[in-house]
Amino acid sequence: MDAKFFDSKSEKCGLCARRCHIPRDSLGFCKVRKNENGVLKALSYGCVTAAALDPVEKKPLYHFLPASNTFSISGYSCNFSCKHCQNYSLSQNCEAEYYEFQPEDVVASAKNSGAESISFTYNEPTISYEFVYDVCAAAHKSGLKTALITNGYMTEEALTEIAMYLDAIRIDLKAFTDKFYKEVCSAKLQPVLDTIISANEKQIHTELVTLLIPSLNDSADEINSMLEWETENLGKAVPHHFTAFTPMYKMTDVARTSFETVDRAFRLAKSAGLYYPYVGNIMHSEGSKTYCPNCGELLILRAGYVCKTPGLLKGGVCKKCGRKIEGIY
Asked: What does the pLDDT read at residue 69?
């Protein structure tokens, strides 16, 4: 499959924020896009390494078809090299076993599973852009919604093209310093911030996740700076999940995140005025509930991946005061 966003004269790929120079017979950083005689090829097109029916809350997406199931699929490789990657067996492995699917095969499988949406997850979906785009287009024709679980390292032109077929995007805001992105992820912060703003402006339902890693991105100063940027650029209604780190991959020597650290981030987000701060990967009595920003009514109650919506009317409206709750319902 020919890849999109390639300038054959400069030999630059315009898909992700790396904008790799890919000479002939060479691969980009992601190792799934190859310059073959001046034509960039998408080597991972149709390669599905995993498929599963998940609660949408697992992504986590809390304001996107709550209490529904999503059909999750993944490819392989990534455009980051995070030292703490939870799915490194797929994201850092170009020899992962895969099955070949056509877009209509994915949609048929999703429909047969009873899912209400398709999520591209487990590895970075941006690098399989052409396949993701085709699946999203086919999904919309069949009445299924779509969600991208991503590190947000895509170009504006790539996001603009797929926006019409993309209902939700959950972006990892991994930290709020270039130092972290450079040393831990081999990337930069600003392109991620640009994608978050752009997705929100395009009215793609957007949720954020920050995995708090002890001593690397969990200080109160950094969290406050992140929240200040968020409220100034996105407003207060973008759901933000703060999750606890578990030692993994190349960070097995780093301690688990404490309850106190995650709780502090949650409280700081509440103090900053965020309507929908959440806590993940750790038991927290308030961090999994959704309240109406207007009247304080309990709208959604979650226990693990079990979700109940006692305070919501059809369409995502608060039963008590009638406020429309941000999201897709």
From this structure: 98
Q: How far is CA 94 from CA 33, 90, 152, 244, 292, in A?
A: 12, 8, 21, 28, 45
Distance CA(139)–CA(212), nearest Å, equals: 34
Tens digits of residue pLDDT in 130-146: 999 999 999 999 999 99
| DSSP assignment of 110-165 | HHHHT-SEEEE-SS-GGGGHHHHHHHHHHHHHHT-EEEEEE---B-HHHHHHHGGG
Q: Which of 310, 318, 305 is nearest to 62 (CA)?
A: 305
Cβ distance 94 to 31 under 8 Å?
Answer: yes
User: Closest Cα to residue 68, out of 53, 81, 51, 83?
Assistant: 53
Q: Show the 3-state SS of 41-95.
A: EECCCCEECEEEEEEHHHCCCCCECCCCEEEEEECCCCCCCCCCCCCHHHHCCCC
Q: 129 pairs with which residues across the strands? A: none
Question: Tens of pLDDT along 206-223?
Answer: 999 999 999 999 999 999
The angle subtended at Cα 201 by Cα 196 and Cα 204, nearest 5°, is: 75
What is residue 275's three-state secondary structure? coil
State the Cα–Cα distance between residues 240 and 61, nearest whole angstrom. 10
- Reference 261, options 207, 210, 193, 208; nearest CA is 210
Report the alpha-carbon distance of residue 76 to residue 143 in Å, rounded: 27
Q: Per residue in 261-270, pLDDT tens?
A: 999 999 999 9
The CA R_g of the chain, rounded to the nearest whole Å, is 19
